Amino acid sequence: TSFITDYLMSLGEMSQRYKKEIKHGFDWVIYRLSLDMGLTPIRLPFSRVPGDIPAPKTETEFGIDEGYLSPNSEELTIFVLKARQLNKGNWEAERFREDLEHAKLIVLPDSLPKNLKSVKIILAYNQDDTRDGIILFNAFAKLNSGERGGLIFEFERWNIDHIVSQVKTHLMSPELLPPEHFSSFRMIFDLCRTVEPFGEEWDRLLVA
């Protein structure tokens, strides 16, 4: 758990391109996690290319970093991502409130399905939080939850502990890591499933 927590907290908010290399961000983890939860992406902050390597976009997000539809297309899940602690100072300075305000307007590039019934807006941040930050979020959620325009709105917040829990439940596989590390870690994951760790066969295979 400590390794997963440290890894997730080290990620920037968005995947970025540095010259010819891609530095994967927190957005990539949420994307892989959402796919494993059976959601269909309709808004991503990057373009997918062969090899499943993200190519960062530069278009305006309107507070919606990632958007997904449930299998029956009745629920839209919107992620507002932050690589900052949720606290009183960051609520305004890091645009927590502003991005949540934009997200509830549901400005998406594609038309929404006609059978859509509910919208879940998740504030996900790969850091800790403080009591005053939680109070501000809860007040915002209470004020903006409920029915609007024929849709039911609800709000959730995922801090680093909740994200780690979700990852351990849905994404304990090489897909947690950037694509360039898939093959090496897939071999280790497969080895752990079939061979007793640190036993004679383990040592023989690793040495070989």
Radius of gyration: 19 Å
The major sheet is characterized as: 6 strands, mixed
What is the total tally of β strands? 10
Helix and strand sequence: HEEHEEEEEHHEHEEHHH
Strand content: 15-25%
Shape: globular
Compute the average pLDDT. Answer: 81
**Count of DSSP helices?**
8
Derived from helix and strand composition plus strand pairing, the structural class reads alpha+beta
Enumerate the spans where pLDDT stays under 50 for 5 or more consecutive residues. 180-185
What topology, given as strand order, has the largest sheet? 3-6-7-8-10-9
List its salient traits:
24% strand, 208 residues, 38% helix, single chain, six-stranded mixed β-sheet, two-stranded antiparallel ribbon, alpha+beta
